[in-house]
Predict the structure.
Amino acid sequence: MTVSFRPSLRTSNENRRARLPREARLLLLVAAALLTTTLAGAQDKPAAAPPTTANKPAENAGSEACQGCHEDIFNAFQKNPHHLVETDKKRGWETRACESCHGPGAKHAESASADDIRNPLKLKPAEADRACLTCHLNQSTHVGRIYSSHAKNQVSCVSCHSIHKNGPNGLVARKATEVNQLCARCHADVWASFQRPFKHRLPEGAMSCVDCHNPHGTLLSRSLQTARANEPGCGKCHGDKAGPFPFEHAPVRVEGCMACHEPHGSANPRMMTRHEIGFVCLECHSNLPAPTLPANGTLGTSPPAFHDLRTPRFQNCTLCHQKVHGSYVDRTLLK
Ligand code: HEC
Ligand code: HEC
Ligand code: HEC
Ligand code: HEC
Ligand code: HEC
Ligand code: HEC
Ligand code: HEC
Ligand code: HEC
Ligand code: HEC
Ligand code: HEC
């Protein structure tokens, strides 16, 4: 069992320590302070600031104490964005940044046992999240976290963020190729769609999943990115298709782009849901009232019912209805 922030989850050893009489705790503190100064002197390192440690609860060791045994991690940490926690007075973890995520470490620093220290990777997802969210709660990237399918499906912060690694797959994936690799690890089926002939250029590294999804969740379903505050994010890059138009084509706004396109990739040109554009349209428009029985192959309400679907000319709807996403001038989307 790893040690947790919450008192109820403390190990029995720790509870025993917490129950020691006041005098005994003071003695321990003095002994600890003496020990650190002697040790520090012997190793010719700056002391772990006795005044600060003496004022803190006995369980904290300070980051310097970790250095001796975790030299590599300690050194790499100097360049970690979290090093700010070590130096910034306002954040409340000055000189003991390691323990902001790993919990009180004095006991572990003595015993060197994995049982005495918290490793977020081994915590339950919700507990690991809580450890990170003590600091990251109020950032715009995380407002949707509570709705996200990741949170509900036990995918915690540390599934995607490796605190102590730099470079590719490090603390945070930034390059498109790194992000895609990260997401594809769990979403192999989605990644497979991007190998189809007509797709956004993710395999080429020109775009990534986070262009369309926010891994931390959003207020839209499927954690879709938003554009202009609350509209689906396709409009970020395809603003000309998203409108607003004086003459809208209802499904663009109501069902969204996915009424006609497969955003993850398609076997059909233009990433359409069907091979022939006419069939995409007829999925919704075949039931228009016809002047005679539909068997006559015509479409349309008013005479002349000139949409004669038996002729190739009328099968290619977008030949005439060019402004299928919406028009500035024409109700029937012809121009
Ligand atoms: C006396 C040497 C020593 C000191 C000082 C020390 N550690 Fe460790 N630490 C170890 C050893 C040895 C292990 C590996 C234990 C194992 O795998 O059983 C370890 C493992 C860990 C782990 C991984 C635990 C796990 O469950 O995988 C973390 C996290 C950790 N240390 C953090 C710290 C922090 C934070 C400090 C400073 C407060 C610190 N250590 C100080 C020796 C030390
Ligand atoms: C922002 C939170 C955070 C801070 C700050 C932090 N760690 Fe960690 N540490 C983690 C997480 C999460 C892991 C699990 C592995 C990973 O994600 O990289 C970890 C893993 C470890 C391990 C186990 C490594 C292994 O290979 O199993 C050690 C040891 C460790 N940390 C020591 C430290 C020391 C020493 C410091 C301070 C210099 C420190 N950590 C600061 C979050 C943190
Ligand atoms: C004690 C406060 C604190 C805790 C706990 C904490 N962080 Fe951070 N985190 C920071 C600060 C400070 C920064 C750097 C400044 C900033 O960007 O706000 C940061 C930056 C980051 C970044 C961005 C790095 C970059 O290059 O932009 C990531 C990702 C991150 N933290 C993930 C985590 C994860 C995952 C955890 C839990 C294992 C965690 N943090 C726990 C304070 C914290
Ligand atoms: C499914 C994977 C995933 C999960 C889970 C996840 N993140 Fe992220 N996070 C990312 C990716 C990818 C980025 C880079 C996004 C980008 O560049 O737009 C990122 C970016 C960040 C950043 C930097 C924000 C910025 O724009 O600079 C912080 C901080 C962060 N995450 C913290 C967290 C915290 C805290 C949690 C847990 C509550 C968490 N993340 C959960 C994948 C994830
Ligand atoms: C550790 C595994 C893991 C990683 C890494 C991961 N996911 Fe997920 N993701 C899941 C699980 C589990 C679910 C929920 C089950 C499902 O819908 O497949 C999910 C669901 C989703 C959903 C559906 C959301 C919804 O509300 O229905 C989206 C979108 C998503 N992930 C995007 C991403 C993106 C983008 C990345 C990379 C930044 C990523 N995932 C990385 C495991 C992961
Ligand atoms: C061009 C934008 C776009 C890109 C890029 C994109 N997605 Fe999506 N994704 C969507 C849309 C839109 C939906 C919603 C589909 C729906 O509701 O029918 C979706 C749905 C999902 C879902 C929900 C389940 C499903 O298959 O419908 C998952 C999981 C997912 N995406 C993961 C990913 C991953 C992982 C990547 C990167 C490899 C990625 N997406 C790249 C737009 C995108
Ligand atoms: C980050 C910008 C970006 C976002 C966000 C984006 N796209 Fe794209 N989209 C592109 C680019 C660039 C191309 C051209 C790709 C190429 O030719 O390689 C493209 C191409 C397309 C095409 C095919 C065009 C053709 O001529 O074959 C369709 C359809 C499409 N996008 C729909 C969508 C939908 C639907 C969404 C939202 C779910 C979306 N896009 C989100 C950038 C984006
Ligand atoms: C009612 C069906 C339908 C809807 C809904 C729809 N599209 Fe299209 N889209 C089409 C058709 C049909 C074409 C092919 C037009 C052509 O071949 O002339 C197309 C072509 C495209 C193209 C490539 C052609 C070009 O002019 O660049 C992009 C990009 C695109 N759509 C983006 C979107 C986006 C973004 C949305 C959502 C805002 C969307 N579409 C909603 C039917 C639709
Ligand atoms: C998801 C269903 C759906 C699909 C697919 C669809 N439409 Fe529509 N379309 C509608 C709806 C709903 C209206 C609004 C009807 C109304 O206002 O009476 C509409 C309106 C129209 C109008 C204007 C009619 C008018 O009187 O305002 C035209 C033209 C049109 N669609 C052509 C097309 C073409 C061409 C395609 C194929 C590229 C297509 N539609 C695909 C649902 C769809
Ligand atoms: C040769 C050009 C042409 C082709 C091809 C064509 N249309 Fe039309 N369509 C028109 C014209 C012109 C109108 C306007 C009629 C009017 O103003 O009354 C129209 C009107 C419509 C309307 C509105 C009908 C109403 O009564 O409001 C719909 C819906 C429609 N077309 C759907 C389609 C579909 C679906 C296809 C493909 C199967 C298609 N059109 C192919 C020229 C065409």
